[in-house]
Structure formats: C-alpha cells, structure tokens
Design brief:
Layout (H helix, E strand, L loop, with lengths): L8 E6 L9 H6 L11 H16 L5 E4 L4 H13 L3 E4 L8 H6 L5 E6 L4 H10 L4 E7 L3 E5 L2 E4 H15 L5
Parallel strand pairs: 3-6
Antiparallel strand pairs: 1-4, 1-5, 2-4, 3-5, 6-7
Length: about 170
C-alpha cells in the first residue's frame, strides 16, 4: 500500500458499531462503560474478503483498524503517517454519542484511504461483498478535523505523539 494523498477519500468499511467497554479509553478512565460489541463473524469474513479484493485491485492506498483507541486514533495515526490532515465527519449511528464514536472500539471496522477516481469501484466492490461503507471525508490540509468534535494541527499531534512518553515522565525530549 502507498501513502494517502491530498484529495483522497477517507472511508469506514464494515460496522460502525462501537463501545467504550473493553476499549483503551475505558482502561485509562478506569471504568467499564457499556457492553462489548459482539463479533458478527459473517460480516468479519465479508469485510476481509472485500478489503483483500480491493487491495489486490490496487484500489486502497492505506488501511487501518479501529483497535487501540478507536476511530479517532486510527484517523490520527493515518494523518501522522502521511503528514497530511483530514477533514472528516463521524458516522451518525443511533445510540452512539460523539465520545463513543471517536474512541469506541468494536470488531469489523477498517478505515480505508482511497483515491477519488477509485471511490466508485470501492463502493461497487463493497456492495458486491455486502459490506457497508461510509464516506467520512477527505485528506488534505494541515489539520485533523473530525466534525463536530476536533480540529488539531498535524504538527501538534506529531509533537504529542513523539514527545508523549517524555512529557508523561517529566522529561524533555
């Protein structure tokens, strides 16, 4: 896979159902919030077949799962890796608030970075595999904008990411 580029589509494939139960967020908060989202093995299999087929056809520039921090962390890690911002909107799912949508974890969800010219082919392939997809937004700029909750410069994210442990230990880099 290659790196994402300005104008690329940011897509969530699979399930948008997430929970804070069992998440990194809940572990850090010291609480179990909600119930763990059950694994739909049939969807999981379809999702993996879809992503592998899309990759084999050269339709996916990058992919990232939602584990270890949820959608917000996955988007931040992709933006940091490529050094490009994003402007995305959290998927609207009934019963899931913004905090859960941003940091919740759950099975069967993969963020894909797709060239704009390949988006139709990705949607078609997803439909053929019975995999839901959400267009979250696009890559570009120098901010990670996750509407309606976050707008942070990539440089600030990089500083926090690279200096986080040192700061937590009270040391300079």
């Amino acid at each position: 896979m290659t790196s994402g580029r300005k104008g690329d589509a940011v897509v969530l494939a699979g399930s948008a159902r997430v929970s804070l139960a069992g998440s990194v967020y809940a572990a850090r908060a010291g609480t179990g919030i909600g119930e763990v989202v059950p694994v739909d093995l049939a969807l999981e299999a379809r999702l993996h077949r879809f992503v592998l087929a899309a990759h084999a056809r050269g339709l996916v520039r990058a992919a990232h799962d939602r584990s270890d921090g949820g959608l917000g962390v996955a988007l931040a890690e992709l933006a940091l890796r490529d050094g490009i911002g994003m402007k995305v909107t959290l998927p609207a799912v009934r019963g899931i608030d913004r905090r859960v949508a941003l940091f919740g974890e759950g099975p069967s969800g993969i963020v894909l970075i797709v060239a704009p010219d390949d988006l139709h082919a990705v949607r078609t392939l997803a439909a053929q595999n019975d995999v839901p997809i959400w267009l979250l937004g696009t890559m570009g700029g120098d901010l990670l904008e996750i509407a309606p909750v976050l707008g942070t410069p990539i440089a600030s994210l990089r500083d926090a990411h690279e200096g986080g442990l040192a700061a937590a230990l009270g040391r300079s880099r």
